[in-house]
Write a structure and sequence with these properties.
The protein is 38% helix and 21% strand. The protein is α/β, with parallel strands linked by helices and 332 residues long. It has two domains: 111 residues, Rossmann fold, CATH 3.40.50.720; 176 residues, Dihydrodipicolinate Reductase, domain 2. The strands form two sheets. A seven-stranded mixed beta sheet has the order 12-11-7-10-9-8-13. α5 packs antiparallel against α11. It is globular. One of its GO terms (molecular function) is inositol 2-dehydrogenase (NAD+) activity. This is Myo-inositol 2-dehydrogenase/D-chiro-inositol 1-dehydrogenase. It comes from Saccharomonospora amisosensis. Its EC number is 1.1.1.18, 1.1.1.369.
């Protein structure tokens, strides 16, 4: 198959490399708002080049991978679907709930699949945890603890258009909590602090945050995130049950050291960023998209799935700003 790729920034270029190695993919056409960057990426990876989005669509790819800035996501997803092209779009679907609902409404009933990029659904540890819950191995799951800890902040110019820590970062935890447990979040209480760079506060954002979530079966989930985890990139999901407890993300590269006597530090090195930590998941995710394009399977993560995680992030942001519990029904 021949796939199109819109966006050749860091995540787009990483996706391009993966797509070029997938057995089902014969060729990739890349485009970007910066044609020179797209041309350079195409040349470096031995791929086709399109001078712009219009040209990319005119080449009629079998599927489209969207890895552009968020504000371009809705238009590209809608255009692809209305043209009959299955589309993979990095999260989020749109910058806000209204935009996400608009995409869902305008692509509904078109018979064209849309897959949203929540790569943790393809991570071996998260898959194993989901199976353990479904098979009842943990007994009654009463508590979850989820963390996404970045080793260093993104560029200052990124923060004002990121959507904030909950929508940009913790939304992955919210999707993982829903997907692994099969339950829905019904209420959130969240807090955030700023003790790092001033540009977070200037953008109305925080650099560290935590949320207590109540699931629809009264399970408690704790989610925390920071832009300042100097030990390294750290993503974990712990599930505590009445029969057993398990953890995703505990390995020799986990940047968390025990200070108990005789316990060695993790062998390391720590993961420097998300592309390293989830490399295998990204490969599986895009391979799944080729199955979607081929018509062999439905989308494993729909815009409606992404919307549910976005609702949780929205509730957390509202809770943080108003310092009160917020029900998910309030932001729907």
């Amino acid at each position: 198959m021949r796939l199109g790729l819109a966006g050749t920034g860091r995540i787009g270029t990483a996706h391009a490399r993966i797509l070029g190695d997938l057995p089902a993919v014969e060729s990739v056409v890349v485009a970007d708002i910066d044609p020179a960057r797209a041309r350079a990426t195409a040349a470096a990876l031995g791929m086709e080049f399109a001078a712009g989005i219009d040209e990319l669509f005119s080449m009629r790819p079998d599927g489209l991978v969207v890895a552009t800035a968020t504000d371009a996501h809705p238009e590209l997803v809608i255009r692809a679907v209305q043209t009959g092209i299955p589309v993979f779009c990095e999260k989020p679907v749109a910058a806000d709930i209204a935009g996400t609902l608009d995409v869902i409404e305008r692509t509904k009933g078109c018979g064209v699949e849309v897959q949203i990029g929540f790569q943790r659904r393809f991570d071996p540890g998260h898959l194993a945890a989901r199976s353990a819950v479904a098979e009842g191995k943990l007994g009654r799951v009463h508590t979850l603890r989820a963390t996404t800890l970045d080793p260093a902040p993104p560029p200052a110019e990124y923060i004002p258009r990121s959507g904030g820590l909950f929508r940009d970062c913790s939304v992955h935890d919210f999707d993982a909590i829903r997907w692994v447990t099969g339950r829905e979040v019904v209420e959130a209480y969240a807090l955030g602090t700023n003790r790092g760079a001033e540009f977070f506060a200037l953008a109305g954002d925080v650099d560290t945050a935590a949320a207590v979530l109540t699931l629809d079966d009264d399970t408690i989930a704790l989610a925390s995130a920071t832009r300042y985890n100097g030990a390294g990139y750290d993503v974990r999901l712990e599930l505590l049950g009445s029969r057993d407890s398990i953890a995703v993300g505990m390995d020799e590269r986990t940047p968390l050291a025990s200070v108990e006597p005789g316990i060695p530090r993790p062998a390391g090195p720590a993961y420097p960023h998300f592309l390293d930590r989830f490399q295998a998941a990204y490969v599986r995710e895009l391979a799944a998209f080729t199955d979607v394009v081929a018509g062999n399977s439905p989308s494993p993560c729909t815009p409606a799935d992404a919307l549910e995680a976005f609702y949780v992030a929205e509730a957390c942001e509202l809770s943080r700003r108003q310092r009160r519990p917020v029900s998910i029904s309030e932001v729907r």
